[in-house]
Amino acid sequence: MRIVVTNCNTTRAMTEEIVRGARDAASPGTTVTGLTPAWGPESAEGWLDSYLSAAAVLDGLRTYEEPYDAVVMAGFGEHGREGARELLDVPVVDITEAAAHLACLLGRRYGVVTTLDRARGQIEDSLHAAGIAQHCAAVVGTGLGVLELGDEERTTRAFLAAAERARDAGAEVLVLGCAGMTGLQRAVGEKLGMPVVDGVAAAVRLAESLVGLGLTTSRVGGYAKPLPKARTWGTGPGGPPPSE
Amino acid sequence: MRIVVTNCNTTRAMTEEIVRGARDAASPGTTVTGLTPAWGPESAEGWLDSYLSAAAVLDGLRTYEEPYDAVVMAGFGEHGREGARELLDVPVVDITEAAAHLACLLGRRYGVVTTLDRARGQIEDSLHAAGIAQHCAAVVGTGLGVLELGDEERTTRAFLAAAERARDAGAEVLVLGCAGMTGLQRAVGEKLGMPVVDGVAAAVRLAESLVGLGLTTSRVGGYAKPLPKARTWGTGPGGPPPSE
Amino acid sequence: MRIVVTNCNTTRAMTEEIVRGARDAASPGTTVTGLTPAWGPESAEGWLDSYLSAAAVLDGLRTYEEPYDAVVMAGFGEHGREGARELLDVPVVDITEAAAHLACLLGRRYGVVTTLDRARGQIEDSLHAAGIAQHCAAVVGTGLGVLELGDEERTTRAFLAAAERARDAGAEVLVLGCAGMTGLQRAVGEKLGMPVVDGVAAAVRLAESLVGLGLTTSRVGGYAKPLPKARTWGTGPGGPPPSE
Amino acid sequence: MRIVVTNCNTTRAMTEEIVRGARDAASPGTTVTGLTPAWGPESAEGWLDSYLSAAAVLDGLRTYEEPYDAVVMAGFGEHGREGARELLDVPVVDITEAAAHLACLLGRRYGVVTTLDRARGQIEDSLHAAGIAQHCAAVVGTGLGVLELGDEERTTRAFLAAAERARDAGAEVLVLGCAGMTGLQRAVGEKLGMPVVDGVAAAVRLAESLVGLGLTTSRVGGYAKPLPKARTWGTGPGGPPPSE
Amino acid sequence: MRIVVTNCNTTRAMTEEIVRGARDAASPGTTVTGLTPAWGPESAEGWLDSYLSAAAVLDGLRTYEEPYDAVVMAGFGEHGREGARELLDVPVVDITEAAAHLACLLGRRYGVVTTLDRARGQIEDSLHAAGIAQHCAAVVGTGLGVLELGDEERTTRAFLAAAERARDAGAEVLVLGCAGMTGLQRAVGEKLGMPVVDGVAAAVRLAESLVGLGLTTSRVGGYAKPLPKARTWGTGPGGPPPSE
Amino acid sequence: MRIVVTNCNTTRAMTEEIVRGARDAASPGTTVTGLTPAWGPESAEGWLDSYLSAAAVLDGLRTYEEPYDAVVMAGFGEHGREGARELLDVPVVDITEAAAHLACLLGRRYGVVTTLDRARGQIEDSLHAAGIAQHCAAVVGTGLGVLELGDEERTTRAFLAAAERARDAGAEVLVLGCAGMTGLQRAVGEKLGMPVVDGVAAAVRLAESLVGLGLTTSRVGGYAKPLPKARTWGTGPGGPPPSE
To answer: How far is CA A147 from the centre of its chain?
Structure first.
């Protein structure tokens, strides 16, 4: 089985890290390929970045030519998921929803620990749109930016402090709220005495499950195939300004 | 990986059918064992049956002595799930929630097609308690009892009629609302042009995913281990009546 | 009018205490009989106990042979209510819902003070399933187990501390969240300056009201009579293990 | 026990009918007195009438001088309930909420059959504000005005037609959605094969229950006593116009 | 364009202040007239006052004889809005909903800072009935009564303290929760670094918008015209008592 | 006051039509300029188009150099709104939310009549994210594509048929669910006897209101300014493919 994992930003080092996390989680026989969008933000932190990222990732997917069986979208709380479902004939699983789906199987309430507080709104909306927000007790920020997660000690410390707040709010299970945190679940899970779900790992397993069961996106209603029409995907540097 | 699948009723033929469905869905390397409760109802249809079934299934699990890695509870809409989570140190996945989790990845709204109309309330409550009810567009009965599902042609016909009502209510994905329907997804999916999710298959894959990722039930809060205390599990035939 | 009050556990002393509370609350002309299940947990604390209790209480009710006009189910947050409604032709009132119904008439928001924190999830689900959760501001644990409530001074102290937290969360009325607290409302109500509703008392009065008005459970839809079928109620000590 | 039942309009014949219904429902030892507001609308049908009625009924209560133990407010869906709770030291039960509370004990979903369609919004809001709307499946109008209910045959026919629609929407129990329908439950309940709850009867029993248990409105938070201040209650005919 | 702004109480000085706020907010070409009810409470603080106020304001509107294009109802959280919509052929905007509508355009969550804590319930219900409660993060009291808001320094101090609590609860925008606070937005907005919405100003602009676009209240369904019937609006001093 | 109205697609004729609608609705003294994105879809119909459109519109806004006081985003149900709020220091109003806000002032429930059924999900999500979905009774498709709306007679006929369904679902007010329908409110409003709200007109008036009151987007929390970082906005034709 071949899974394409899309990074939501243009930072290749992060794609590599995500691919490592995805490969660690994959079943034997699954191959994982990363896709770094050719344009977009270097990290997605906020709504502007998220919408830019969504278009860039969709552009990457529509021009991707190798065969694959499923897509994992590795931007926590980022937009684009439903567009990929329309575009592709294979299952699409987003790490936000994936982590929440597995978390619901492990406790009555889950909490998300993410990067900056400004990401909270997007995550809440994404969980709601995916139909899995009901048991989310809290979305808590660590105060660290996406590209600041490299210092593992600091990240662990910030994660544990934020996890405490999520637990006080009723969380019995935690979710890593950024693709860049992948791998952290081992370091913090034991210290917290709680299950910690990594969205990348969860999405890989859910994608494998759908493919294994022969299931793919419904074409009835919301995710019908895109209509044929003229679409242009950015003007590139030096392109024309918008016209009034 | 060893998965125990619990039937919710005492009808062994149904356990065998469920085990067949589970084996069809399992990954290579997974072994599936069925567990038929030693007591309870011959089929679970309604609240009384469901509560009786829950205790019988939990009794079966607490006295089961072979080693295993996960439990799949194969009673659609039946009670007991949270009790098994308390009791066991391995992941527990119920087919009701499992089907709904996967369905949410395939369309914006899902519908459940079940046996008798009287089952609808339990299913709605079970989905709500699992935190996955938000995108359920409808729970529709076929009018067939659990032990009447054997006539495949009649069952298919009744399923398609009920599926139409679910679709009118907004469902883009369908869920088989009874463990005894396992296998039916192939017959009806193509006719409907919609994905059809079998809860037994879904639960097997989700259980594999949790085990594969090293995740198990949280002991923080709701699913703490049962306290040691005196418990008796039925009096058996000829036991004493309740005391006033 | 004859009301049967079912204890949810096998501890007869607790049945007696509950019956005392019920008799104190009953109108002139109402007789109250207690029913202790012949099997089950000695106290119900958690999901496993609750499902075991549900089956045992239903077994008690189905084999109970004296005539009566209504049933009060005295397990706060415990399962079984809907099964009893199916089984019996007389009104069934559960103390969880009963307390909440009356509390809603006395203030804009109510809070529940219960025994162990682990009971909170069941109580929340039970109130939701009964349709009366909307105005519940908080369910708060005292940290005392069901069989530790005998020391009235300690119980009062723990109750008052928990009540403070419920009030901070917006509760204007309190509910005693365990049948074993029956009678405590007098001790704590005055100290708190808030109405305190005992579920046992509330349920007795609601049962009387339904009987008095000639109302009983609807047979349309959810609570249709159980279908005739083979059911066994536990194997008793020495019974056969479940079959694989 | 002395219960005052307030009509929401100035039509004395309707007060008398409501009092008859209340007396039929009351326990032995309860006396029921009707209160017709000295001003207000001759029937309450819509928001304007409802707000006018609320002030008139509160004026009636604040100037009522006989002793009593509880108040039943007999305007289905009409305003004023929370004001009476602030004003009085005795329990206040409104027939809208009362019917819904009892209905929730009898089935999983209830429906309200009322007079004109325009009343639906108020009833929905009233049930929501009372915290008991969750299990309301539908509020359905009969098309008959409040003062047209006298023709029992026509009313019964219109009620049965509307009840059918409520049942199709999932109602398992019905509620009479107008104080002027009191008594109708006997005529229609049998025909429908469903329990039918009369709000006047329900409120009388709930008021008795609260009084019997020594419970009254909380003064913590929402229903604190009205502050002393200048208030004038209408100018009467010939009074001054409002000043710009 | 002519807008009538109704004060909810009989204190003319407050009407004048509200009119000043409304004029400050109005577009060029809009004239604002205040309407002080001829009866009612001198300030509206609680449910009793609110229902009394609603009837008095509606009485004022129905007897008001000058021509106008829209009504702004300037009682924050007070009743009557829907009655005015039935009564009048021009648009009616209430300051509670108006402030919330604009606040939703400025941030993801808003908070209301009001006078006494006892007002919170009414405000919550009013926002819910208006369909705009979803993004309300908190309603917080300052502890100051309506007629105590004159001391601007004290009011500012109390407002800032309450605003802090609303912000901790997630509010990104604040709403002045009393018509008597109009004008305060300038003093506190800058100190807080957050937008502060005055309901009077918001309602004036929304009323202008509706009139400008030729929109008025729907007569389909909920806000059909009041039916012709006998209505009396208070007995005035010395009027007859209610009849039993 | 200068308002920029952004079309969500690259079809200039549609921008012109929207600008016409906006100018018709604007107050004297307001100037309206249209902005057609330099790239994106020729019409936005579905999730893929919507995400592409969002990035293109944001690209247009960030490179737009003329001064202006507010932005109206004229894509009904399209993404991007929150990104524009982060990006800009002036108020941003989206036509989806704008129409719903005004509709809530005109009736108890509103319905949206849109183009293709596939747009329904996006509109529902957009209304929910804006906090104004509670009173939405239905979103109904006409079956016409965005670029098929030019035939006014056919569009009117299709609109009226869809409006009927919305009304049956409880709508008392209708919303034009596509910017390309602007102007249609006059043709259909009278025929329907219900208020019909055009989102373009509503958004222009709301934008004017915010500017007039000196209100703009909160920078606290969700809509903080975008962080400085590397962002690329499309590669243009002939740009590099995404890297694996």
So the answer is: 16
Q: What beta strand segments (E) does F36-172 contain?
A: 40-41, 70-74, 92-94, 110-114, 136-141
* C60 and C15 Cβ atoms separated by less than 8 Å: no
- CB contacts, 8 Å: D170 with chain C: 221
Interface test with F, best of A5, A89, A219, A232 (most F CBs within 10 A): A232
φ, ψ of residue A113 in degrees (nearest 5): -110, 120
Q: How distant, in Å, are the alpha carbons of A172, C204, F31, F204 from that of F25?
A: 52, 63, 11, 7
Q: Which of D43, D77, D82 is nearest to D176 (CA)?
A: D77
Token pair for residue D240? 């001054």
**ipTM entry:** 0.96
> Tell me, what's the pLDDT at E187?
85
Tell me which residue of E142, E132, E130, E131 sits closest to E177, measured CA to CA: E142
Write the pLDDT tens digit of every residue in F114-157.
999 999 999 999 999 999 999 999 999 999 998 888 888 999 99
Give the closest-approach CA distance of A70 to chain F in angstroms: 15
SS3 of E112, please?
Answer: strand
F60 shares contact with chain A (CB less than 8 Å): yes
Best A86, A209, A225 residue to mutate vs chain B (most B CBs within 10 Å): A209
Distance between CA atoms of residues D186 and D175, nearest Å? 12
DSSP, collapsed to helix, strand or coil, labels residue F19 as helix
Give the integer Cα–Cα distance in Å for C215 and B24: 50
pLDDT tens digits, E150-172: 888 999 999 999 999 999 999 99
Asked if E224's CB is within 8 angstroms of D46's CB, the reply is yes
CB atoms under 10 Å from CB of F79, counted, come to 34
Inter-CA distances, B12 with B15, B34, B35, Å: 5, 9, 9
pLDDT in tens, D46-81: 999 999 999 999 999 999 999 999 999 999 999 999
- For residue D116, is pLDDT > 60? yes
Q: Do E27 and F212 touch (CB under 8 A)?
A: yes
Q: Which amino acid is at F229?
A: K
What distance separates the 2 farthest-apart alpha carbons in chain A?
A: 58
Check if the beta carbon of residue A47 is closer than 8 Å to that of residue A66: no
Answer for the pair E198, E25: CB distance below 8 angstroms, yes or no: yes
Backbone angles phi, psi at B106, to 5 degrees: -115, -10
Confidence check: pLDDT of C159 > 80: yes
- Cβ distance of C244 and B33 shorter than 8 Å: yes
CA distances to A80, A144, C216, F124 from D192, in Å: 51, 63, 14, 38
Calculate the CA dihedral of residues A230, A235, A239, A243 and round it to 10 degrees. 50
Q: Label residue F238 by pLDDT band (50, 70, 90).
A: low
With beta carbons less than 8 A apart as the criterion, state whether D216 and C195 touch: yes
User: Tens digits of per-residue pLDDT, E109-140?
Assistant: 999 999 999 999 999 999 999 999 999 999 99
- State the Cα–Cα distance between residues C95 and C198, nearest whole angstrom: 8
The single-letter DSSP state of residue F148 is G
Tokens 């605003």, residue located: E163
CA D203, D205, D208, D214 dihedral sign is: negative
**F153-161 contacts: CB < 8 A, separation 24 or more?**
F155/F181, F155/F184, F156/F184, F156/F187, F156/F188, F156/F191, F159/F113, F159/F184, F159/F188, F160/F188, F160/F191, F160/F192
Residue C20 backbone dihedrals phi, psi, to 5 degrees: -55, -50
pLDDT, tens digit (0-9, with 9 covering 90-100), for B67-82 = 999 999 999 999 999 9
Q: Where are the beta strands (DSSP E) in D75-208?
A: 92-94, 110-114, 136-141, 173-177, 196-198
The Cα-based distances of D210 to C99, C202, D215, E211 in angstroms read: 11, 9, 5, 50
